[in-house]
Amino acid sequence: MLKTYQNIDDSIFDSSAYHINKKYLIIVGAWPYLTPGKRKLMWLSINLALFTVWIPQLIHIIVIIDRKKEVIYCLMTYLCASMGFNSSVNGLLNNGALKKLFDSLKENWKYLQSDDERTIFATYANYGKMFTVGLSISYYLVILSYIVSALMPSMLHYYFTGNWTVPERNIFEAELFVDPVEYYWPLFIHGIIIAFVAIWILLAYDCFFIMIVMYCSGMFSVLLHKIEQMDTVLYNYSYDQQLALKKIEEIIRTKSRGFLLHPVRNTAIDQYNRDKCMRIAGHKYCK
């Protein structure tokens, strides 16, 4: 059964529909409701960890620039780390905008006026959760496959011969200024940690995007539901064109508040929008 929310406060983000998004954003230091000190500390920690591979990889690519196959192998992980870092910087610079979006989502739960509207909103929130879970599983399967692929030649060699050999490649090929054979396993463990750091950053912002898309879809669906209810509501005003128009504007203004992050002023609904509203509601109410 879908859970609907009637008493909305900050705990909405601890609900089953949003808690995964919240956890990801907290991990990468992008959750806007953290204190500034905690947010900056977590952001610095996770990005410094990412830098321990990103910079050495860049140096390694420059060193082997003439060996195309090795460069291609390094580029896959380097580009993933770069995308993660770019997303993280973008999130830091636009943290205020993130907070406005979360505030808007929270406030719009309060604006819902009926159980039907809350059910519609909850439905889309749960769609977002399903997409988030699916995307997370896909990302984790990809990174686990990539981690295992570095060990696969040695595993097959051990299976057929009974002798274990040190793998030729590590998760990340980077210039860390240590013997890659002697320190293979410490570097391998370090690579696993950084791989998951990069995945967490990418998941945090990709899943946030999914959540916002589902939030907007839910708002449009609630607006559509409200318009479909106009026939019943406006029937009582059909005797007076001005009263019917006023009621339509009231409905549109209330629902537009969620899209624009602030109440719609009277001047925002000009004659063109009035005519459009009348076409949506049906001219029969203003005849």
Annotate the secondary structure layout:
Layout: H1 19-27, H2 36-63, H3 68-93, H4 95-111, H5 115-161, H6 184-228, H7 230-235, H8 241-260, H9 271-281
Can you offer a commentary on this structure?
The chain has 287 residues and is an all-alpha fold. It has helices at 19-27, 36-63, 68-93, 95-111, 115-161, 184-228, 230-235, 241-260, 271-281. 25% of the residues are buried. The model is unreliable at 1-8, 258-274 and 281-287 (pLDDT under 50). It is found in: Cell membrane. Its main location: membrane. Keywords: Cell membrane, Membrane, Olfaction, Receptor, Sensory transduction, Transducer, Transmembrane, Transmembrane helix. The chain crosses the membrane at residues 41-65, 72-93, 137-160, 181-202, 208-225.
